[in-house]
Amino acid sequence: MIVSTPEGQRIPATGGQTVGPFFGFGLPYEHGNEIAHPWSPGAIVLSGAVYQGDGNPIPDAMLEIWQADSDGSIPQARGSLHRDGHAFTGFGRTGTTDEGGYLFWTRNPGSVDGAAPFFAVIVFARGLPDKLHTRIYLPDDEAALAADPLLSSLTPEERATLVAVRTEDGGLRHDIHLQGEKETVFLAY
Amino acid sequence: MTDTTVAPAPESLLAAPDQATQQEIVREIEEVHAAHARAVADGTYRGGQTLYDFPPYRSSILRHPTKNPKLVDPETIELTSPAFGQRDVAAIEADLTLQHAGEPLGERMVVRGRVLDGWGRPVRQQLVEIWQANSAGRYIHKRDQHPAPLDPNFTGAGRAITDDDGWYEFTTIKPGPYPWRNHRNAWRPAHIHFSLFGSAFTQRIVTQMYFPGDPLFPLDPIYQSIPDQQDRDRLVATYDHDLTEPEFKLGYRWDIVLTGQHRTWFEPEGDHR
Ligand SMILES: [Fe+2]
């Protein structure tokens, strides 16, 4: 369709469609999951798995994360698709493994304007008709989490689906459930 | 655009267990659309254009959220977007016919269009990615088991950065329709997968572009997961003879409108200016 509405007038958005089963050669790219260079100072592993309603893992999902740097600044560097090994672009993308797993090398996002720090997350999958937005909050600052407008509007069970677990080695662990008892809280803006 | 190593999915994962007839799938589509129209009429529908709960698309049954999304005010990070530029994408990546030593088979075509926000403003210097089947309807992906030929001169993935007026352009080969195992004798209408970024992460979209007049439209539960005909029309490119180059390639025009805020539809005009 050709949009001929003059600038300044509201136009309806183009609808989303499933990413389908065959995105693997089009979207994921080398080092897409290495927002921070592995083992570089401050680098952590954020990992987990994506599940469907019957509890089985989803081997053909794709996750994207977008985040502030550790000091709370919004990254402006280009180069997510061809990483130079040190610029922090704040954006990562990865497909899930045959076991539904995902893994990002990144840094802890810092607090932006005093708010509870989180990763902005988008989930795509074969069988998922459109994208889903969610957040992964850092578990460390309980006062900030308690003050967060979204988290404080949720039941404890819902809240648990948005807060990562800190692992012994300083990394983060977080699973995403598209459906079922532990269904992740997804967001609309 | 690296080839990722993925194990072939077991057939059981990709084939719907019940293998309904095409007639049954069309009836289900009509039922869901009718229920949706009632929900819109009585004001209870609050979602976007695409239905997450769409059983005619069988693999969505276990993969759609059952709860309504939480309406939130986007935080700063969600109102911004990663930056992409020439460091990320080389100009040649927008021509899918030049990625190999020889010419791919099929109808050479160009698709050109603008990426706009919900107020008609151009989305500048942002990433557009596409991937597609070859002219025979076969993906290079390892999970594609369709017994149609691969084309050694066609991969089917491209990238571009929009210019300062929001324009993108790809030269490629018209993809073929292809069978899948959602139901018996299921065929996808020819389409190109599109992935786009806006100026806010909330505007991120992955969708599919279709070709005008495809007879498979009423039969396809993915195209029909958008219940409103006007919204479905927005996914269909327009043939544009002015874009067609004599004795070389056919031209299609397809504009994409991004918006990250569903709620604006339920507020009076003007609130966001
Ligand atoms: Fe496809």
Question: Mind explaining what this structure looks like?
Answer:
The complex is a heterodimer of chains A (189) and B (273). Chain A has helices at residues 142-147, 156-160; strands spanning 44-51, 61-66, 91-95, 101-106, 118-125, 132-137, 165-166, 172-173, 176-177, 187-188. With 189 residues, chain A is mainly beta. In chain A, strands 1, 4, 7, 8 and 9 form a five-stranded mixed β-sheet that branches. In chain A, strands 3-2-5-6 form a four-stranded antiparallel β-sheet, with no helix packed on it. Chain A has a single domain (19-177), classed as Protocatechuate 3,4-Dioxygenase, subunit A, CATH 2.60.130. The mean pLDDT of chain A is 96. Chain B has a domain at 84-257: Aromatic compound dioxygenase (Protocatechuate 3,4-Dioxygenase, subunit A). In chain B, strand 8 (191-196) and strand 9 (205-210) form a beta hairpin. By secondary structure, chain B is of the alpha+beta class. Chain B contains three helices and twelve strands; from the N terminus they run H-H-E-E-E-E-E-E-E-E-E-H-E-E-E. Chains A and B meet through strand 5 and strand 10 of A and strand 1, strand 2, strand 3, strand 9 and helix 3 of B. Bound molecules: fe (ii) ion. Fe (ii) ion binds at residues 188, 191, 193 of chain B. Fe (ii) ion binds next to strand 8 of chain B.
